[in-house]
Design brief:
This protein is an alpha/beta fold and 459 residues long. It folds into 2 domains: 209 residues, P-loop containing nucleotide triphosphate hydrolases (Rossmann fold, 3-Layer(aba) Sandwich), CATH 3.40.50.300; 154 residues, P-loop containing nucleotide triphosphate hydrolases (Rossmann fold, 3-Layer(aba) Sandwich), CATH 3.40.50.300. The chain contains 16 helices and 14 strands. Strands 3-4-2-5-6-1-7 form a 7-stranded parallel beta sheet, sandwiched between helices.
Length: 459
Amino acid sequence: MTEENNVKLEGFAKLGISGALLKATLGAGFTQPKPIQEQAIPPFLEGRDILGVAQTGSGKTAAFSLPILSKIIALGTKRRPRTARALVLVPTRELAVQIEETVRLLAKGAHVSTALVLGGVSRNTQVRKLAQGVDVLIATPGRLTDLVREKDVVLSETTWLVLDEADRMLDMGFINDVKRIAKATHPARQTALFSATMPKEIEALANGLLREPVRVEIAPQGTTAAEITQSVVMARTKQKLQVLSGMLANAAMRSVIVFTRTKHGADRVTRDLQRDGFEAAVIHGNKSQNARQRALNGFRDGSVRILVATDIAARGIDVPGISHVVNFDLPDEAESYVHRIGRTGRNGASGIAVTLCDPAESAKLRAVERVIRMRLPVTGDHTSEADPVHSARTPAAEGQDNRPTREPAQKAGQQHPGRRKPGFAHATAANDGGRKEGKKPFRRRKRGGFGRRQAAKAA
């Protein structure tokens, strides 16, 4: 190729992507490669194994999808039943769905077949799809292990293997399944392992699966996107919901993910937000795949403004235009913070991440700051007794005194206005036993009457 032709090659064409795949890539809006793509695609096309370390939202999906699709298109041979030419293993259902959508988008018009294998949906549908053979299979380890065991899918002809978010698969206890699946693939396979962090266990896994890999590291581990503005608001656990509701009253928070530590907490926060009039949906591991997909679709199309989720959604949710991420609880694993806030500030857009921190969570906050190597600014503190969120006082207005909003205590013997005592008819405001319109006269029951009746029955 002449120097003049080299000059003309730009974008993904310069990386070796061509033909119908390049046309589909440009049509999908992928015009300029990201750093992870520039460094990973050329060696992958050359047949090298890849060890990729990059922060969430850096473009890893296209970095491994484009070279695999390029090789599959070049083969042009028929697929064999119950086989998959390429396998992408991911830790969560949401990430699997997102990757499959991206692969189909990039391969538009190229006659490449894809399939999803994941839990929470019909197994029979997946088996029928695999019976014809597929080009690219995207799967979670649990369900795929079951299908391999029952011989519904054969991986001996799988020549491309990708492990995405490998550190998350380690956290979820999938590593042994991953090793068994990798062992079942073609011995001469090409492998890529991508992860946002690289603990020792993942290094060991990479050493066992990869052959002289090209290491691609875009940013130091734990690096957060520069476009994300991060801050901490101090609030006690019992105050957090009120603080969150106050924040959500700001119309600038147009698309928000709220992360909680537990599934029960996610359900509780969702109910409380809905009770306060906010459009909120929830995603966590106890929800069916259909319910999770409905919630995610509503969040994506804007009919749901707030998505409440556990760390299952910290990876794999790529919704354009997420303006804010709120950590209602700090994560147990500090590294999860990086993935949580990475749902905003994607593809060069700006984003805001706010963490609500109880003083009892200070150790977790310090752990997060060690991972991201920066001190998070505290922009609000609601832990003081004098704070309006904590107390019954309202902010003082100009020219007005700042008195409690509660009614003054009633004098001894008076009933609080509007309250009823259980078991008694409602009396008049004067509590004089008179008749109020539509009410029976107040009659005091004799003391001990109930006890005597019970005693007589017992006798």
